[in-house]
Write a structure and sequence with these properties.
Layout: E1 2-4, E2 9-11, E3 26-27, H1 40-70, H2 77-95, H3 102-123, H4 129-152, H5 161-179, H6 187-207, H7 209-219
Antiparallel strand pairs: 1-2, 1-3
Amino acid sequence: MNRCKRCGIDINDETSRCLFCGMVLSGDGSSTENIYPDIRNKTRMLKRTINIITYFAVVLEIFLIVINYYNYYGIKWSVITGGALFYLVLTLQYTVNKRNGHIVKIFVQMLGAMLLVVIIDFALGFSGWSFNIGIPLIILLMDAVILMCMLINYKNWQSYLLIQIFALISSIFHMGLYLAGCVNGPLLPWLSFGMSAFIFTSCLVIGGKKAESELKKRFYI
């Protein structure tokens, strides 16, 4: 039997810290059985598997770079495979990990997708399709995913404000590229910016104090 001196409760489980306050427990020397499922072994196995996959991904990419170097015919295809393997490792490290919430997973997946399309575009000689089409479509996809999550989890919709800000900043950056003449075509820049701005401002207006409190909590205002 273990006891937390801070909380004043007895814990009938083989753990060294209190489940409520995290304080180190004091025990009476008697042996107990776990009353909660032990997931530590599964977590270690998952981390080990991801580390092994990451290691072999790095080895594979080095091997592909060597092949591409000695068999170069104008296309740096090893850069594309490197970007794909990087996206795979990023997905395993953040998306498969159950400790990361789905908001973090959405952020990492969308940011990784943006980097991947830019890498592929540069590897193929950079025709500009990544900025003209790829990134604005990813921003629109992110807006759609955010809106769907807010509708499903409507009781806690304000938790998506932070990723909405990321989508809005991304759309503003893309709009800046369009206004500077670096992006062709007005449709996708205006559409991605308009959708991101509409969702964010609608949440601020309709959400009222709930949205204001969430922003203050996130930015320590």
